Amino acid sequence: MAQTTASGNHVDLTKEECKDAGALIVCFGEMLIDFVPTVGGVSLAEAPAFKKAPGGAPANVAVGISRLGGSSAFMGKVGEDEFGYMLADILKQNNVDVSGVRFDSSARTALAFVTLRADGEREFLFFRNPSADMLLRESELDKNIIKQARIFHYGSISLIDEPCKSAHLAALNIATNSGCLLSYDPNLRLPLWPSAEAARAGIMSIWDQADIIKISEDEITFLTGGDDPFDDNVVLTKLFHPNLKLLVVTEGSAGCRYYTKEFRGRVTGVKVKPVDTTGAGDAFVSGMLYSIASDSTIFQDEKRLRKALYFANVCGAITVTERGAIPALPTKEAVLQFLLEEATIEQH
Hints:
The chain is an alpha/beta fold. About 35% of the residues lie in helices and about 20% in strands. It has helices spanning about 15-20, 55-65, 80-95, 145, 165-175, 195-205, 215-225, 230-240, 280-295, 300-320, 330-345, and strands at about 5, 10, 25-30, 30-35, 50-55, 70-80, 95-105, 110-115, 120-125, 150-155, 180-185, 210-215, 245-250, 255-260, 265-270. The strands form 3 sheets. A 9-stranded mixed β-sheet has the order 7-6-3-10-11-12-13-14-15, sandwiched between helices. Strands 5-4-8-9 form a 4-stranded mixed β-sheet. A hairpin with a 5-residue loop joins strand 8 (about 110-115) and strand 9 (about 120-125). Helix 2 crosses helix 9 (about 280-295), helix 9 packs antiparallel against helix 10 and helix 10 (about 300-320) packs across helix 11. The two termini are about 35 Å apart. About 45% of the residues are buried.
């Protein structure tokens, strides 16, 4: 293990730990422009103006990991247009590997109008007809970058349309054969699917392949056909599968629940004043995967896993204090500062 010298400042890492510290996480799927109202608590129709923000869950996660000091790459397709170039630049500025990004000259970068209404519900309006992210082909995959990954992370939106669906399944196959940990956040966006039945079938079609799954309470209710999302038995009998190393259920500000083969429990959330919840789940996933990538035995150690999930909760909490997803994703310094201030408050 790491040895600290007498000076206390210098730490020697073994070769394996150095590899862990830079373990690559490849995020596959959509990257788009979110248009967020300049004022909160209004419907899309009532919004006086919109501010553009980079979005798309897998891209958010890639940036989130990099901000925390991890190593990440994004794979997906954007339009060969101003928005597409802007998104690729944002990834580069955030030290995300873009060698897996492709540009499409025949389709536009996807747009999504997102608002948080006064009742707390999010409203989405998507412009994808088709958008560039839906047109990624298997032949355009950067196979080498997948083979280098410790973790391959993805959602379900890339399963909705061809040719992207086939590209996604091919990438999953490469990742599996390369020994990557497979991380799945279904990220249900019902308006994008042809029907609720298609969404349920599509999301569950790759369920049993994942090593790590993160879902929300709403998604449990949807996937189980209306069962109680708080019931452990529902989660364990209907959603936990034999290959799963970790299933995490996020509960917003209340924190999260975790299930592994050996143990299960709950990690409390962090109370902050929310401004915009967009990207909170992606920030949580970033924090969680960042910890898992650098600690491959975490699934066997409940204490370390709980610590990692609390770190992820803090990542999510910091993100909701600012508007937009990517602009609000925290750095490791911001998370550590938050934890330090929290510890100071507890001592007084």
